[in-house]
Design goal:
3 domains; 25 strands; transferase; Rossmann fold; carbohydrate metabolism; alpha/beta; glycogen phosphorylase activity; single chain; 808 residues; six-stranded parallel beta sheet; 16% strand; ten-stranded mixed beta sheet; glycogen metabolism; binds pyridoxal-5'-phosphate; glycosyltransferase
Length: 808
C-alpha cells in the first residue's frame, strides 16, 4: 500500500476522489475519515483472509470470547497505530493541510458497553491479536450504544447514542452468514427408534445477521474478527394488496419486536435488569454465536467429539451463560448425541469469568419467563439441574443447605452463576482478592465441590491504547530511555527505574504531565467554561456512578475541605482540582442524586473567591473511552476508593498507574496488587479491609450514627446535606443523607471518612515535594507492566484456553 508520506498522499487523494467525488479542499472530516478507513480496510484485507485461512489450515484451537458488551471506543487511531502507519498518515495529512488528531475527534466512540466489563473485552481482543493468538469476539451490534450524557442544571439528561448515524467504516455485513434464532413456541416429545425426540414448533423466527470488524494486531500480520450480530425480521416487504389489515398490523408488530433485540444496550451497570427483552438479547447472541462457531468448526471436522480440542467458548460474566444449554440443545437435538456425550463436550468447551460478588448483581431469571421465551432451552436447564442436584445429594448425604445453595433452580428462579459453574470447566475471578472471596465466602460450597475449576486471572489493560496512543509523549520518553522492547514486552517498563533519581528524567516526566494537564485544561474550558490551573493537583475520580464506588465519600471530603478553608484563613493545602466523570444508570435514583450533589458543590466552590483558588471542582459530562484517554494522562491522583471487597478488580486504577498518577485507594480489587508492585511508599492506602467489611456484614456491629456522633466534621457535612446551605430545596439531597444515616450506610462511607481525610492530607503534603512526588509517579509507571492485558491474556491462553500463538 504505502511506505512513505508521498505514497500515502497519492493513494489518499485518489481514494478520496473515487469515494466522495471531492478533493481535499472541499472534503468534510467525514469524507476524510471514511477515505482513510477504507484505505485501512483494503490494506489489511489480505492479512485478514490469510489469518483465517491459516487458522483453518493449521487446525489450531480457537477461542471465542462471548460478551454482551464490547466498549471499543474510537478505532481509527488504534488501528493506524497497530498497523504501524500512524506517523505516515499524520505527516501525509498534515502536508495536505489536515490534522489527523482533529479528524479523530469526529469519530464517534463505539460505546457498546457500560464500563469496566465491556472495556476489558475490548482490551482482550487487542491483546489476543497482538500476541498472534487465535481468538475472536462475539457480541451484539447495538444500534444505540450507552446513552450520551448531558448535564443540565446539575442533573443528568440522557440522549440516545446513535453511533452508526454516519455508517461504520470498520464493519462488513455478512448476510451470507446469517442464522435463524427461534423464540417462544412449544415442545413435544416422541419416541423415534428408541430415542426421545424433541420437536420445537410454533416459534417465532428472528434472523441474526453478522457484521464483522477486523481486530488488528500490533505490528504483526494477525487480523482477528469481532463478529457483532444484528437482529432482522424475515419479512422483507409488505405486499399491502394480498394481506389483510389485521395481518399487516401483526407483521409490523413482529418487525418492531424483532428489530428491538439489537436496538439498545442495557444501560445498567451491575444492577440486574429483569426484563424480557434483555433475556432475548442474551439468547440471541448465544444462539447466533454458537451456530456460527459450529458451522466454521464443521468445515474442518466431521465429528463433534473433537470440539473441546479445537474450540473454547469463553463467557464474560453470566450474561452469555445460556451458551451452556444452547450448545447442549444443538448436540442433543441436531447432532443426536446422548445426554452424557453432549454434557461431556459442553463442559469441556465452556469457560466462565465471574465479575462480581455484589448480591444484587448476581443474575437470576424467573422460571416462567424463561419457560415461555425459551421452552426447549429451559427443559435442558431443568435436566442439568435434576442430574446435578442428584450428584450433590449423593455426595453430601442429607445436607439440605448445600443442596439449596448449589441448586441452579431455586424459588422459581434460574440462578445463572450456578449454571455457569456447573456447566463450565473453568471459573475465574478477576483479581486475587476477588478470587479468594469467591473461594472462601460467596461460592464456598461450589469451591468445595469443584476445587480445581476455580482460578484467578487478574485483569489488565492494553498498554498500546492506554500508554502508547493516549500518552505519546510519555511513551516516547520511555523509548528514548530504555529502547522500544517494552512495547512488545511491557514488563520491561521496569527499566525506567534506573532513572528514578535522575534530575533530567524527572524534569521530563514533569514537563510531560504539565503538557497533558494543559491539554485537559483546554478541554475543560471548552466543555464547561471552568478555568483550571495546571499547577494544582489534578485529583481524578472517573468511573460509573455507583454507591459502592463511593463518589459520595470524595464529595463529602471536598465539602469538609471547603469548610476548613473558609474557617481558617491560614489553612494550607496543595491547591487541588477535583475532576469527576460518571454516568448513572437512568433508573438509578441514588446515583443521579450524587451527580446533582457534585455539581451543586462545584457551583458553590468554583464561584467562591474567598477560598484563594485552593480548590476547584469539575464534573465532565459524557464520560467514555475517548474522554478517559485525555483525562488519565493529565492526572496526578487516581481515586480508587470503593468499599473494600466490592470492586472485583477495577481497570481504571491500572490506566492511571501506567500514566504516572498515584493511587489513593482502599485495599480492594487490583489496588491490592498495585500496592504490592509499587510498595507502600508509592501509594496512599486507607480504610477498612475486605475482611473487616465482610465481617461487619456477617456479624453486624457497625453504626453510622456512632460516626456522626463521634466526629464533629462528619456531623457538619452531613448537616449541610439537608440544611439548605448547599441546595436551595433542603429536601433535594435527603435521600443521600438517609442512606448514610437511617439506612446505616451500607458502604461504610462515614466509617472511612476520617481515614480518607487523613490520607488526603498526606497526599497534599507529599505533592509539595515535587522531586519525591515525581519519583512516586516514575515508580508507578515502572511497575505497571504486570497490568498489561498481554500478561492477562497470556495467562488465559496457557492456563484456561490452551491456545498457542500462530507463527507465520
Ligand atoms: C476503564 C474504564 C472503565 C472502568 O473503570 P473502573 O474505574 O475500573 O470502574 C469504565 N468506563 C470507561 C470509559 C473506561 O475506560
Amino acid at each position: 500500500m504505502f511506505s512513505n508520506t508521498e505514497e500515502f498522499k497519492t493513494g489518499f487523494s485518489k481514494k478520496l476522489a473515487a469515494l466522495t467525488g471531492t478533493n481535499i479542499e472541499d472534503a468534510s472530516y467525514n469524507d476524510i475519515y471514511t477515505t482513510i478507513g477504507s484505505m485501512v480496510r483494503e490494506y489489511i484485507s489480505s492479512n485478514w483472509m490469510d489469518t483465517n485461512h491459516q487458522y483453518r489450515k493449521d487446525n489450531v484451537k480457537q477461542v471465542y470470547y462471548f460478551s454482551l458488551e464490547f466498549l471499543l471506543g474510537r478505532l481509527m487511531g488504534s488501528n493506524l497505530l497497530n498497523m504501524g502507519i500512524y506517523d505516515i498518515c499524520e505527516q501525509g495529512l498534515k502536508e495536505l493541510g489536515v490534522s489527523l488528531e482533529e479528524m479523530e475527534e469526529h469519530e464517534p466512540d463505539a460505546g457498546l458497553g457500560n464500563g469496566g466489563l465491556g472495556r476489558l473485552a475490548a482490551c482482550f481482543l487487542d491483546s489476543l491479536a497482538s500476541l498472534n493468538l487465535p481468538g475472536h469476539g462475539c457480541g451484539i451490534r447495538y444500534k444505540y450504544g450507552l446513552f450520551e450524557q448531558k448535564i443540565v442544571s446539575g442533573y443528568q439528561v440522557e440522549l440516545p447514542d446513535h453511533w452508526l448515524k454516519e455508517g461504520n467504516v470498520w464493519e462488513i455485513r455478512r448476510s451470507d452468514k446469517a442464522v435463524e434464532i427461534h423464540f417462544g413456541g412449544h415442545v413435544t416429545m416422541e419416541q423415534v427408534q428408541g430415542r426421545l425426540k424433541f420437536n420445537h414448533y410454533a416459534y417465532e423466527t428472528v434472523v441474526a445477521v453478522p457484521y464483522d470488524m477486523p481486530i488488528i494486531g500490533y505490528e504483526n500480520s494477525t487480523v482477528n474478527t469481532l463478529r457483532l450480530w444484528s437482529a432482522e425480521s424475515i419479512v422483507k416487504d409488505l405486499d399491502s394488496h394480498s394481506i389483510s389489515t389485521h395481518d399487516q398490523r401483526k407483521i409490523i408488530e413482529y418487525k418492531r419486536q424483532t428489530e428491538a433485540i439489537s436496538e439498545f444496550l442495557y444501560p445498567d451497570d451491575s444492577h440486574i435488569e429483569g426484563r424480557r427483552l434483555r433475556l432475548k438479547q442474551q439468547y440471541f447472541l448465544v444462539s447466533a454465536g454458537i451456530q456460527s462457531v459450529l458451522r466454521s468448526y464443521k468445515k474442518n471436522y466431521d465429528s463433534v467429539f473433537e470440539l473441546p480440542n479445537r474450540v473454547c467458548i469463553h463467557v464474560n460474566d453470566t450474561h452469555p451463560v445460556l451458551a451452556i444449554p444452547e450448545l447442549m440443545r444443538i448436540l442433543l437435538d441436531e447432532e443426536n448425541l446422548s445426554w452424557d456425550e453432549a454434557w461431556d463436550i459442553t463442559t469441556k468447551t465452556i469457560s466462565y469469568t465471574n465479575h462480581t460478588t455484589l448480591s444484587e448483581a448476581l443474575e437470576t431469571w424467573p422460571v416462567d419467563l424463561m419457560k415461555s421465551l425459551l421452552p426447549r432451552v429451559y427443559m435442558i436447564i431443568e435436566e442439568i439441574n435434576r442430574r446435578f442436584t442428584q450428584v450433590v445429594w449423593e455426595q453430601y448425604q442429607g445436607n439440605w443447605e448445600m443442596l439449596r445453595n448449589l441448586s441452579i433452580i431455586n424459588d422459581n428462579t434460574v440462578r445463572m452463576a450456578n449454571l455457569a459453574i456447573v456447566g463450565s470447566y473453568s471459573v475465574n475471578g478477576v483479581a486475587q482478592v476477588h478470587t479468594d472471596i469467591l473461594k472462601k465466602r460467596e461460592m464456598k460450597d461450589f469451591y468445595q465441590m469443584f476445587p480445581t475449576k476455580f482460578n484467578n486471572k487478574t485483569n489488565g489493560i492494553t498498554h498500546r491504547r492506554w500508554l502508547l496512543r493516549a500518552n505519546p509523549q510519555l511513551a516516547s520518553l520511555v523509548t528514548e530511555s530504555i529502547g522500544e522492547d517494552w512495547i512488545a514486552e511491557p514488563s520491561q517498563l521496569i527499566g525506567i527505574k534506573q532513572y528514578l533519581s535522575d534530575a533530567s528524567f524527572q524534569q521530563k516526566v514533569q514537563d510531560i504531565k504539565r503538557s497533558n494537564k494543559l491539554i485537559l485544561a483546554d478541554i475543560i474550558k471548552e466543555q464547561s467554561g471552568i478555568i483550571i490551573d495546571p499547577n494544582t493537583v489534578f485529583d481524578v475520580h472517573i468511573k460509573r456512578l455507583h454507591a459502592y464506588k463511593r463518589q459520595v465519600l470524595n464529595i463529602l471530603h471536598i465539602m469538609d475541605l471547603y469548610n476548613r478553608i473558609k474557617e481558617d484563613s491560614t489553612f494550607e493545602t496543595s491547591p487541588r482540582t477535583f475532576i469527576f466523570g460518571a454516568k448513572a444508570a437512568p433508573s438509578y435514583y441514588f446515583a443521579k442524586k450524587v451527580i446533582k450533589l457534585i455539581n451543586t458543590v462545584a457551583n458553590i466552590v468554583n464561584n467562591d473567591s474567598s477560598i484563594r483558588g485552593l480548590i476547584k471542582v469539575v464534573f465532565l459530562e459524557n464520560y467514555r473511552v475517548s474522554l478517559a484517554e485525555k483525562i488519565i494522562p493529565a492526572s496526578d491522583v487516581s481515586e480508587q476508593i470503593s468499599t473494600a471487597s466490592k470492586e472485583a478488580s477495577g481497570t481504571g486504577n491500572m490506566k492511571f498507574m501506567m500514566n504516572g498518577a498515584v493511587t489513593l485507594g482502599t485495599l480492594d480489587g487490583a489496588n491490592i496488587e498495585i500496592a504490592e508492585e509499587v510498595g507502600d511508599d508509592n501509594i496512599f492506602i486507607f480504610g477498612l479491609t475486605p475482611n473487616e467489611v465482610l465481617n461487619y456484614y456477617k456479624y453486624g456491629g457497625y453504626s453510622s450514627w456512632d460516626m456522626y456522633n463521634t466526629f464533629p466534621r462528619v456531623r457538619r457535612v452531613m448537616e449541610e446535606l439537608i440544611s439548605g446551605e448547599i441546595v436551595a430545596q433542603a429536601g433535594e439531597l435527603r435521600d443521600i443523607y438517609n442512606s448514610l444515616l437511617s439506612d446505616n450506610d451500607e458502604y461504610f462511607v462515614l466509617k472511612d471518612f476520617t481515614p480518607y481525610v487523613d490520607a488526603q492530607l498526606k497526599v497534599s503534603q507529599a505533592y509539595k515535594n515535587q522531586k519525591k512526588w515525581t519519583e512516586m509517579a516514575i515508580m508507578n509507571i515502572a511497575h505497571s507492566g504486570k497490568f498489561s492485558s498481554d500478561r492477562t491474556i497470556a495467562e488465559y491462553a496457557s492456563e484456561i484456553w490452551k491456545i498457542k500463538p500462530v507463527i507465520k
